[in-house]
Amino acid sequence: MSLDAAIQRLQALALSSTDINIKAAPNYPVEDAGMLPLAIAHIGSGTGTIQEATTTLLLFNVLVDVHFSLNNLSAAYAQIDLFIPEYLKRLAGDPTLSGAVDTIVFPVTFEVLQLQWNTKTTVGPRFTIPLKFRETPIT
Fold first, then answer.
1. Which of 23, 43, 75, 125 is the most buried (most CB within 10 A)?
2. What are the CB-based long-range contacts (under 8 Å, 24+) for 76-83?
């Protein structure tokens, strides 16, 4: 199991949701708001506990931010309204993220808020997706 593979899968699910052409965030932020809408998945927080002497339980909260342009607010919210249920259905349909994690720990939460992409203020959903990994401790 791999956290990198899980993040890539969350990103791929975001890019394939709805008929809206959502792009992957580029490696280096650009000023061009024409890049929108775009999605980026990244670690937000997490916890690690010992479940038994032979198992470490890792819970990572991965954030998926989807940025939409504020140039036309009603169009942005129409796109957000289409994206949210579609993305949640895709997550429910792939709870192991193609085998990258033990499981997504539902519920997945989201909020719609103003986001920042480089120097541009955008609007969009931020999903918090808890991912569970069971690993063997290193001794």
1. 125
2. 76/123, 76/124, 77/123, 79/18, 79/20, 79/37, 80/112, 80/123, 80/124, 80/125, 82/18, 82/19, 82/20, 83/17, 83/18, 83/20, 83/22, 83/125
CATH topology classification for 3-135: Alpha-Beta Plaits (3.30.70)
Q: CA of 32: how far to CAs of 76, 113, 120, 121, in Å?
A: 17, 20, 9, 12
The distance of Cα 68 from the centroid of its chain, to the nearest Å, equals 15
Say if residue 75's pLDDT is above 60.
Answer: yes
Where are the chain's structural domains?
A: 3-135
At residue 92, what are phi and psi to the nearest 5 degrees? -65, -30
Environment class of 66 (CB within 10 Å of its CB; exposed 0-12, middle 13-18, buried 19+)? buried
pTM metric for this prediction: 0.88
Q: Which amino acid is at 103?
A: T
For a pLDDT cut of 90, what percent of the chain falls above it? 62
